[in-house]
Amino acid sequence: ETGVTQSPTHLIKTRGQQVTLRCSSQSGHNTVSWYQQALGQGPQFIFQYYREEENGRGNFPPRFSGLQFPNYSSELNVNALELDDSALYLCASSRDMKETQYFGPGTRLLVL
Amino acid sequence: AQSVTQLDSHVSVSEGTPVLLRCNYSSSYSPSLFWYVQHPNKGLQLLLKYTSAATLVKGINGFEAEFKKSETSFHLTKPSAHMSDAAEYFCVVSVSTSGTYKYIFGTGTRLKVLA
């Protein structure tokens, strides 16, 4: 059974650009949650997808958006990148909404 | 609102000595609590979880945590530290809001293990 995988591992963008981050959930998991971890801080909840529908989001602007596909993999899209978007983006999958979340290795995004 | 507070931002121990990482929680009902570990440039690994089945929870790599309702605490302990335990540790509470189950993380405790 493979764990949660994320791609790419690292990414460098400039202000104003758009970025797409990808996450493959663990086999048998139908829920994906995305978190942003700024340097030296704990992860902050961005949003959650359950069976292809957004199931709640945290305090992030609409330029942060996502998708979940029929195979339960997911994308995080960020438009109009700002310098403060530089962070480690973590994806977590779970067997169901209430179940334990298992995290991927993250994508480190640097915005210049 | 539910939250967790990690009382120490940095903890240093010598190899072979006990580890204590402190976490207090705030919750209006019985919470689901977790400890995760993050090694440098890595993702988060689940150490253990409390979901009201037993107050003393055993996790991986010799770690355990005790849920104390009277003290609203969920401290992480290990009898003997190894060099490989050096990492960032996060105390986490699972919060349910309008059908969304999200994690609220503490600010983290960086554990340093001295040879």
Q: Could you characterize what this model shows?
A:
The complex is a heterodimer of chains A (112) and B (115). Chain A is mainly beta. Chain A contains no helices and eleven strands. In chain A, strands 2, 4, 5, 6, 9, 10 and 11 form a seven-stranded mixed β-sheet that branches. In chain A, a hairpin with a 7-residue loop joins strand 9 and strand 10. Chain B has 115 residues and is an all-beta fold. Helices cover 0% and strands 58% of the residues of chain B. Chain B is built from no helices and twelve strands. In chain B, the strands form three sheets. In chain B, strands 2, 5, 6, 10, 11 and 12 form a six-stranded mixed β-sheet that branches. Chain B has a four-stranded antiparallel β-sheet with strand order 3-9-8-7, with no helix packed on it. In chain B, a hairpin with a 5-residue loop joins strand 7 and strand 8 (64-68). The model of chain B has no long low-confidence stretch (mean pLDDT 93). Chains A and B meet through strand 5 and strand 10 of A and strand 6, strand 10 and strand 11 of B.
